Amino acid sequence: MTKFNDYPFKPFLQEAVAKLGFQEPTPIQKEMMPHILKGSSAIGQSHTGTGKTHSFIIPIVERIDVEKKEVQAVIAAPTRELGTQIYNEILKLVEGSDIEVKSFIGGTDKQRSINKLKTQPHIVIGTPGRLKDLVSENALLVHTAKILVVDEADLAFDMGFIEEIDQVAAKMQEKLEMYVFSATIPEKLKPFLKKYMESPVHINIGDKRPTAEGLDFYLVPVRSKKKVERLIEVMDIINPYLAIIFVNTRTNADYVATELSKKGIRVGRVHGDLAPRERVKMMKQIRDLEFQYIVATDLAARGIDIQGVSHVINYELPEDLEFFIHRVGRTARAGMKGLAITLFKPEEEDAIVRVEKMGIPFQQKDIVKGEFVDLKERHSRKNRVRTANEADTKAKSMVHKPKAVKPGYKKKMKWKMDEIKKVERRKNRKK
């Protein structure tokens, strides 16, 4: 099926999908939806920004039987922001229907969550810890549910949540349908998948170009400046609708945000140390466009969907280079253009080369008089050194010390070697 209206969805769902402006399914949606509609467990692997969320929430909504007042599907999300985002997207789909959807995320009052479960919803979205707690308290009755979705499974594993998801899954129907979505499938995640999934279909949307069309990549050397000074120079040039500045640690997020504040730049912060209320308030401020810049750790690259990001700035390269793709995937979405700027130091050359091998076409840029200017290809100096070394080696091999030496023989040897080097260098330049 090539268009959404080709699917025999219920009228309210067809209307909701049309209202969202969806016409053609993305590759991951086209591949995954048929499996979920027929109840066949599957693994969906694709990079961020490919439409993974709707590839499972649309068919799940279609399959809900409103006559049964019981839990029919459980969706586990590793972060509060991602859980909230999925919940909000499902609400858009169930409008005009009798489908009950409830969200249970960590950092909120547990007793209030229990009170919300006097009637069991059809679809439950939650963070693993909160879901496990509610199941343990016999407040959330998942034994009736046969659909379990694990979103961003590799992130859930990295954050240590697989055990909680396992405990929830163990209480669900024996013939469990599991749908796992992840950008990568780490080796350590496979035992968990094997426990619940018997020969699942593995759909890997391995797009040769891992990033969106309309996205440019600038590589800017820090040089002798402080990195935060270079960052401010970059910020003086661009005028973003909304830019995310990525750092690796909460400490660095606070440092960069504080330094920018000293310059009179108002920035938002998104990292794991924010208290639940602060996070909710921060996300509302971001959605209300109160900030032009957000300083964030990689949690934001995977856990939340911030609309309207025009620029991404990598203040630091991610420790896990796979996250580079997730970071830059925050911009150039829905057909819009975007710019990803990476600040780098010479000692990060190996990491930059590895990122290039992932399909990232960097443009070398410098900053001169408050403007980006093209920079010579950064390997050129290395190539010059190698060429010079090759010329030296060849000259030494062709000029030998005479058996009978005379005064001044060293000068003559050096002169001959220099002449050979000149010839070799000319040849190399022509090449």
Concise description?
The protein has helices spanning 11-19, 27-38, 52-63, 80-94, 110-115, 128-136, 153-158, 162-170, 190-196, 227-237, 250-262, 276-287, 299-303, 322-328, 349-357, 380-398, 409-430; strands at residues 42-45, 73-76, 101-104, 123-126, 147-150, 177-182, 201-204, 215-221, 243-246, 267-270, 293-296, 311-314, 338-344, 363-368, 371-374. The chain has 431 residues and is of the alpha/beta class. The longest helix is centred in the C-terminal third of the chain and has 22 residues, at 409-430.
CATH superfamily placement of the largest domain? P-loop containing nucleotide triphosphate hydrolases
Radius of gyration from the alpha-carbon trace, in angstroms: 28 Å
Give the number of helices: 17
The domain tally reads 3
Class inferred from helices and paired strands:
alpha/beta
CATH class of the largest domain: Alpha Beta
Low-confidence stretches: 381-386
Largest sheet: 8 strands, mixed
Taking the alpha carbons of the first and last residues, their distance comes to 52 Å
Shape: elongated
CATH architectural grouping of the largest domain:
3-Layer(aba) Sandwich
Number of strands: 15
Work out the strand percent. 15-25%
Taking strands numbered 1, 2, ... along the chain, how are they ordered across the largest sheet?
A: 10-11-9-12-13-8-14-15
